[in-house]
Amino acid sequence: MNGPSDPVNLYDVDVIRDPWPHYAHLRDLGPVVWMEALGNYAFTDYDTVRSGLRDHKTYISGLGAAADDFSCTHLT
Predict the structure, then answer these.
(1) How many domains does the chain have?
(2) Which of 56, 11, 10, 6 is closest to 26 using CA atoms?
(3) Partners of 10 in the beta sheet?
(4) Which structural domain range is residue 43 located in?
(5) DSSP symbols for the chain
(6) Whether the Cβ atoms of residue 32 and residue 3 lie closer than 8 Å to each other
(7) N or C: at which end does the chain have fewer Cβ atoms within 10 angstroms?
(8) What is the pLDDT at residue 38?
(9) Confidence band for 4, pLDDT divided at 50, 70 and 90
(10) Separation CA 41–CA 25 (nearest Å)
(11) Which among 13, 8, 47 has a CA at the least distance from the CA of 25?
């Protein structure tokens, strides 16, 4: 993986209680950050999120739209 990465798990209780410093840190790292704990990428700015949401060929949701396996399996 080339580019920035971060070990934080966005589903940790402490992160959920106060996510804003973590979001700011991710934005400081760049528009796309590899999330080590989750095994996926986070888009951290508006333009990147917007572009990703409009690119259905590259960013498919057929394997799940959540960042963790539990949520992907149990979303209905």
Answers:
(1) 1
(2) 6
(3) none
(4) 5-74
(5) --S-EE---TTSHHHHHS-HHHHHHHHHH-SEEEETTTTEEEE-SHHHHHHHHH-TTTS--TT-SSSSHHHHHH--
(6) yes
(7) C
(8) 87
(9) very high
(10) 15
(11) 8
Give tens-digit pLDDT for 34-61: 999 988 889 999 999 999 889 988 877 6
* Beta-bridge partner residues of 41: 34
Structure tokens at 5: 């990465």
For residue 26, the model assigns a pLDDT of 97
Residue 21: both structure tokens together: 């410093």
Residue 17, helix vs strand vs coil = helix
Q: What's the confidence (pLDDT) of residue 58? A: 84
The answer to whether the beta carbons of residues 2 and 32 sit under 8 Å apart is: no
Question: Could you tell me the CA-to-CA distances from 51 to 9, 18, 58 in Å, in that order?
Answer: 24, 27, 10
How confident is the model over 15-38, as pLDDT tens digits?
A: 999 999 999 999 999 999 999 998
